[in-house]
Amino acid sequence: MKEIALGVLASLFFAVTFILNRVMELDGGSWLWSSSLRYFFMIPFLLVIVMYRKGIQSMTKEMKKQPKAWLLWSFVGFVLFYAPLTFAAAYGPGWLVSGTWQFTIVAGVLLAPLFFIRLGEKTIRQKIPIVSLLISCIILVGIILIQIPSAKTVSIESLVLGILPVIVAAFAYPLGNRKMMDVCDGNLDTFQRVLGMTIASLPAWIILAIIALITVGLPSASQVINSLLVGISSGVIATSLFFIATDRVRNNQGKLAAVEATQSTEILFVIAGEMIILGIPLPEPLALFGLTVIIIGMFLHSYYTMLMKKKQTPTVFGYQDLN
């Protein structure tokens, strides 16, 4: 339950991303600057934290072991995650993007066969946790319900451009996160891993920033400030909390799915924030019902995780589920 609590707390800080991205989009800011500035601002804060914990040398050593893996999975986990989210902010309110983003819960469950677990000298392919998948499908129904009212008022083009990039991000984030956990294999703490991934993804952010400079010029002062706030709240605090939670349960696909499901609470924070900051009206009843379904799915994940924990028995390898 501690991991789930960390996931919910991370969702609170993640919500800032969706709100401020929408604010920057409404102010005329380019999504290219919104995405790249966040990661530029993350580096000094993470550097201070890792240097204070005397972790720079060990982080550098690990990155030199597998530079290609760091570059690849950092690009997947950070660039293919955040660039599409900021792009999608141009086509709908933050709560709509945040609601669609909850597809990552289903995506995370479906990715299980791509990963392996070592038990002694054996390497076993992870299986899709069926119960977790069924619960995640409940969340998927909620996502579909919140999209229906918007589908009536926007063009097909806007709907596609607002949804498809988020689906890409929904698969990229858990894939990059989990692959980097395998690469690090417990040798780095969360702050070292986030800093290493941020540094490894820098080439892509620099390219996006150059394109932004050529096409739209320098960012406005408000976009710089908002990007700084996103970098601290979502990039440093939320990402670190979420990675700590997933690191703790990385060898149990059911528990990992439950932690990833806590992201569904983001949408509650986003709706409240947008109503206060942007003055948007309350979503339509059907959308609110969809939001309720998403939250119910998240609580079912939490409940199932508690049941799994009670059914664990010790083995020579640690713990094993009875079912």
UniProtKB/TrEMBL annotation:
Record keywords: Membrane, Transmembrane, Transmembrane helix
Organism: Viridibacillus arvi
Transmembrane segments: 31-50, 70-89, 95-116, 128-148, 154-173, 194-218, 224-245, 257-280, 286-304
InterPro entries tied to this protein: EmrE
Record bears the keyword Transmembrane: yes
Protein name: Multidrug resistance efflux transporter family protein
Domain of life of the source: Bacteria
Pfam families noted in UniProt: EmrE
